[in-house]
Amino acid sequence: DIRIFPVDEPKLKAFVSIIFDHCFIISDIKVIEGNSGLFLSMPSKKRRDGTFKDIAHPLNSETRKMMEDSVIAAYKDVIAKGAPVTSAESAESAEAAGIQQATTPEA
Predict the structure, then answer these.
(1) How many whole angstroms separate alpha carbon 79 and alpha carbon 85?
(2) Which of 64, 67, 83, 107 is 20 to 30 Å from 56 at the Cα level?
(3) Which pLDDT belongs to residue 72?
(4) d(CA 7, CA 85)
C-alpha cells in the first residue's frame, strides 16, 4: 500500500508511507517539487556535521524508479480525486499516528 498525506507547501507536496506485504512500513518519504518535476526524498537522519544520511533507500536505480513512478502516480491520483491538503505539521502527525488519509494498493 502507498499512503499519501498531501501538504500545502511550496516545495514539499506530500508525506508518504509505503507498506510492503502488510508487514513492513517505510515512513517519512517526501514528494518534493524540484526544478525538473516531482521526485522522492527518502527518510533521513541529520548527522552531527549537519549533513543528512538516508536511513532507508532503494539499493539500485531500477527499484528507485519503480518506487518513484508508483508513488508519484499515487500522489497525482490522490490530488486529482480532491484529497484534503493540510499543513506539513498536520500531515506529518497523521502519518506518524498511522491515520490513513489516502491509500492506493501499489507497492
Answers:
(1) 8
(2) 83
(3) 97
(4) 5
Asked if 31 and 16 count as a contact pair (C-beta separation under 8 A), the reply is yes
Encode pLDDT of 30-83 as tens digits: 999 999 999 999 999 999 999 999 999 999 999 999 999 999 999 999 999 887
pTM above 0.85, yes or no: no
Instruction: List Cβ neighbours of 46 (8 Å cut-off, separation of 6 or more).
Output: 52
Residue with cell 527518510: 43
**Which DSSP string corresponds to 89-104?**
HHHHHHHHHT--S-EE
Asked whether 28 and 15 are in contact (CB, 8 A), the reply is: yes
Count of Cβ atoms closer than 10 Å to residue 38 Cβ = 15
β-bridge mates for residue 4, sequence order: 16
